[in-house]
Design a protein that fits this description.
Number of domains: 1
Region (Disordered): 1-26
Structural class: alpha+beta
Shape: globular
Largest sheet: 4 strands, mixed
Organism: Halobellus rubicundus
Domain Thioredoxin: 11-128
Strand order of the largest sheet: 2-1-5-6
InterPro entries: Thioredoxin-like_sf, Thioredoxin_domain
Radius of gyration: 14 Å
Strand content: 15-25%
Distance between the termini: 26 Å
CATH class: Alpha Beta
CATH architecture: 3-Layer(aba) Sandwich
Protein name: Thioredoxin family protein
Number of helices: 5
CATH topology: Glutaredoxin
């Protein structure tokens, strides 16, 4: 594990939303449960978009039975100029949060960036 990954922390905003319904999102739960997928999540507990979107995504991952070791949190800070800093931000080209990168066998499969037209789980499920 790289030094940047060991610096990764926990995003409180990834705590699953108890009101999220897995039954209403069966396709997303099924897609996210695929064996071998790794989810890399950049966000900030200070960020309104993250507070609005990540709890539902956390609930979707939970419903899909994705083990914690396949979900990596990368807390991001915002600099005065608006740029983002944090673990692996430069390596993955993170400019907006939340950003979720899905990998399979170490290769990026798909990516969700802050302002897509649907919730994170549904967006990623359509692309997996």
């Amino acid at each position: 594990m790289s030094e940047s990954e060991t610096e990764a922390g926990t995003l409180e905003t990834m705590r699953p939303n108890p009101a999220w319904s897995a039954d209403a999102h069966e396709d997303a739960v099924e897609a996210l449960s695929e064996e071998g997928l790794v989810f890399r999540v950049w966000g900030g507990d200070w960020c309104g978009d993250c507070r609005g979107q990540l709890p539902d995504f956390g609930a979707a991952l939970d419903a899909a039975g994705v083990p914690d070791e396949r979900v990596h949190h990368y807390p991001v800070e915002k600099e005065d100029d608006g740029s983002k800093t944090g673990p692996l931000v430069e390596e993955y080209g993170i400019e907006l949060i939340p950003t979720v990168v899905v990998e399979r066998d170490g290769e990026e499969v798909t990516r969700y960036v802050e302002d897509e037209d649907r919730p994170i789980a549904a967006y990623l499920a359509a692309r997996l």
